[in-house]
Amino acid sequence: MNHFDTGVSVIPHTRWVCRAVAGALIPVLALPLPADAASLDGASTAWMLTATVLVLFMTIPGLSLFYGGLVRTKNVLSVLMQCFAITCGASLLWFILGYSLAFSDGGAHNSWLGGLDRVLLAGVTRDTLSGEIPESLFALFQMTFAIITPALVVGGFAERMKFSAMLLFSMLWLLVVYVPVTHWVWGGGWLMQLGLLDFAGGVVVHITAGVAALVAALVLGPRRGFGTQALPPHNLTLTVAGAGMLWVGWFGFNGGSALVANGDAAMAMLVTHLSAAAGSLAWMTMEWLRHGKPSVLGIVTGMVAGLGTITPASGFVGPGGALVIGLAAGTICYFATQWLKQRLHIDDSLDVFPVHGVGGMLGTLLAGVFASGGLGLLSGDGYAQGMTMGRQVTVQLTGILAAVAFTALATWILLRIVDALLGLRVTAEQETQGLDLSQHDERGYDL
Prior knowledge:
Layout: H1 3-6, H2 11-30, H3 35-39, H4 42-70, H5 76-103, E1 129-130, E2 133-134, H6 135-153, H7 163-185, H8 190-194, H9 202-220, H10 236-255, H11 263-291, H12 296-310, H13 319-343, H14 352-370, H15 389-421, H16 428-433, H17 435-440
Antiparallel strand pairs: 1-2
Helix pairs in contact: 4-5, 4-6, 4-10, 5-6, 5-7, 6-7, 6-9, 7-9, 7-15, 9-14, 9-15, 10-11, 10-12, 11-12, 11-13, 12-13, 12-14, 13-14, 14-15
């Protein structure tokens, strides 16, 4: 027998049940969603996962092959080994202590150095957010920057530093130089409070690496034969392959620094590409005019100059400004390279300071100019409220000078400490033999 047989309507009972269920659910549905569930952005997370891979790709294999091709045959493995070892060591050091000191404040804000509440990534779970992306992803993305910066410094002392000294120096330098400057600029420190514009690492990455490479070149002295015999790259094919990887990876470097998938990331990628192209052609043209022929080494070095110089400005300038920055990078960094080696006779083996250091300074300064919204076709995103071009350029200069002074002094002290502990330079016999055999007992080529 069913309800219809008894003539009893089921509708009143149904209405009563619905009201009861609704009464029970409404308070639950009215509760606020967890913060991470409400603000996690899937598109931005996917983009940042991709950008992180691209930045790691810049070091291994990009920078490794770029540098490897520039040294002589007997030292190619040493450069690849140094980049690889720095990748491993910097990753663990960033996880243990670096990330916390750079990006956390421990509950008590410090303008100079972060706190210890994120040591060993304590408190970072699957659900912890940094903005719209998982904090674990943010920490990993920043880790790739902490990897490539000391790896860039390798070019300043290539072909003559002991492997043990290189590794100890690089890890100490990461903690003593890179981490504090990162906190100053991106972690809420004093330069960030001043309003410094450094979108993806002109100060944090390129100035620190360039200045450190210059100091290392001065402390170690030139390679044997520098200035008296040719020390040409052994394999430009490797260098061009590495340069192409750097160019592609730089989209993650600069575009990823937006930390979201939006128009800022897209514009950063566009201006990055334009600056790289302009820098390449400017450097090539300088060589063509001065020496009669354009060189492959010149065009790829100009690309790196264009990329490094646009890095601090990439999130603030437009395409017109990027074109000017790239042309300036290719021209000024070219003459800086000639001046450093021919006039000062400093053996910065792979031109880290004139390309990255000078480029980083130039780009950081020009970010303060081309971020202006009142330059017509050369306009950028405009300044923060109350900031004029003069004030912004002053802030940019302050950041440049602070990073140069701190990096130079700290790097010199660290090199002296490592020299006292391990000795910095290989013996004359080992240098003549090559670091591949003397430091690793292997050959890069055995045909």
